[in-house]
Amino acid sequence: MVDEAQPRDPTPADLTNMTDRQTLPDREYIAEQTAAVSEPAPPAIVAHSDFDPDDVDWLVPAQPEHVIIAEPDPAWPERFRGLEARIRDALGEAALAIEHVGSTSVPGMPAKPIIDIDLTVADSRDEGAYAAALEDAGFVFVLRERNWHEHRLFTNAEPRANIHVWGSDQAEAVRHRMLRDWLTEHADDRELYATAKRAAAAPTADDPELVQAYNQRKEPVIREILDRMFRAHGLL
């Protein structure tokens, strides 16, 4: 194990042998999370950014919905694996990383029954490298957000899934993986987030809303947990 007082950049052999994240210095944990792609600087990883509905280019108009928070389903990981295989078959080596993220990736976490997947490509702006192939595989190109990490979103009808496309230098996918691991290991924050999700979903029981309203209501708790996680890793 590397002396945390004198961190070094991990070698390829280090990255290959990293199996127990609890034993890794925080610098090496970041490297582990970004091994398949570029490594964003810590300031980019810890920076929060706000959603601006005016910056969204909707290719499929958003529809109000009743947000349902389901109890944990042991089938969620298997659904991810099926979707992962479809994406891999469609994109081949253009898919630099395919990760199960969001609440359905956290054991024991209540969630909207929608599989969230982070797909990392070389450059999300180069839609010609992936968009048509994903559409041919049955995914629907829903939106692009040029001013928010050059995010692109595809969806799948059955099983319901969101495929978030990121460029290889974007920090948001790193944040998602770190949060997934943190919630898996910290029951107190897992319960805090579950409570926030149920409270955020409650107003939609009678009046359907765009899912962005639900997301914004729970955002303060997400940031609280993220900041606690970043401090624990020595990033704040």
TrEMBL record:
GO molecular function terms attached to this record: transferase activity
Keyword terms: Transferase
Pfam entry (one): GrpB
Transmembrane segments: none
Region of interest called Disordered, as start-end residue ranges on this chain: 1-24
Protein name as annotated: GrpB-like predicted nucleotidyltransferase (UPF0157 family)
Species lineage: Bacteria, Bacillati, Actinomycetota, Actinomycetes, Micrococcales
